[in-house]
């Protein structure tokens, strides 16, 4: 972790494959990084592990209030928390459907709201990066997951425009197939089909997604907002 004068970044879903890579990439680029996860497991060398269920708005408010009090004002937020059930459309029940949207869309909505309110109050600029998915662009056999990631992309476009006047940029990355524990839950036949259709001939790595996130969090991308960056090996 870098010194207290470095910009402070908050990464949700930090204990997962992409989350760990993002915390490491932001740390390497000079950020102080606070990783948040409902699961306290994580790499203590890469980030301070904070436990919260960001699908619960009340916990989001408590989380960001605690961060401001203990660590200062974050200026970078990466909404990476996500859930995937690999479940067929006809097998979904209302509770599981609601859970997918609460985690994949609601968490990004309310984390960004808490983050933006604090920045606007302080008159500070900031950057939000949402982790969406190719499934939100082309659909998914897991219909609830695909729909939730499509909503995440729409939220990115909407917030990028709504928060621009406050000097807060909002963008997203849309990974294709990436070698993570979450992707490992995709049925083997479907994984093989995806791999055969990827022009570069392989799945991506968490580090490749994290590199795109780090660029969007950097001032080098200061004229980029309300945009989705594909990280998918050419798969469409």
UniProtKB/TrEMBL annotation:
<dbReference type="GO" id="GO:0016616">
    <property type="term" value="F:oxidoreductase activity, acting on the CH-OH group of donors, NAD or NADP as acceptor"/>
</dbReference>
<dbReference type="Pfam" id="PF13561">
    <property type="entry name" value="adh_short_C2"/>
</dbReference>
<protein>
    <submittedName>
        <fullName>Short-chain dehydrogenase/reductase SDR</fullName>
    </submittedName>
</protein>
<comment type="similarity">
    <text>Belongs to the short-chain dehydrogenases/reductases (SDR) family.</text>
</comment>
<dbReference type="InterPro" id="IPR036291">
    <property type="entry name" value="NAD(P)-bd_dom_sf"/>
</dbReference>
<keyword id="KW-0560">Oxidoreductase</keyword>
<dbReference type="InterPro" id="IPR002347">
    <property type="entry name" value="SDR_fam"/>
</dbReference>
């Amino acid at each position: 972790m870098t010194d207290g004068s470095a910009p402070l970044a908050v990464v949700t879903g930090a204990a997962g494959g992409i989350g760990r890579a993002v915390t490491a990439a932001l740390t390497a680029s000079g950020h102080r990084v606070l990783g948040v996860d409902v699961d306290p497991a994580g790499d203590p060398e890469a980030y301070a592990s904070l436990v919260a269920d960001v699908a619960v708005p009340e916990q989001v408010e408590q989380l960001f209030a605690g961060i401001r009090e203990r660590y200062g004002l974050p200026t970078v937020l990466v909404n990476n928390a996500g859930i995937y059930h690999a479940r067929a459309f006809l097998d979904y029940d209302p509770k599981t459907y609601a859970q997918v949207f609460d985690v994949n869309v609601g968490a990004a909505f309310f984390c960004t709201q808490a983050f933006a309110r604090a920045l606007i109050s302080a008159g500070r600029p900031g950057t939000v990066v949402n982790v969406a998915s190719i499934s939100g662009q082309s659909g998914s056999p897991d219909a609830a997951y695909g729909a939730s990631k499509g909503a995440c992309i729409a939220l990115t476009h909407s917030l990028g425009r709504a928060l621009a006047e406050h000097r807060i940029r909002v963008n997203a990355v849309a990974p294709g197939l990436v070698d993570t524990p979450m992707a490992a839950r995709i049925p083997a036949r479907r994984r093989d089909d995806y791999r055969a259709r990827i022009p570069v001939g392989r799945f991506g790595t968490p580090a490749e997604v994290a590199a795109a996130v780090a660029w969007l969090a950097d001032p080098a991308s200061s004229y980029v907002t309300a945009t989705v960056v594909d990280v998918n090996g050419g798969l469409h």
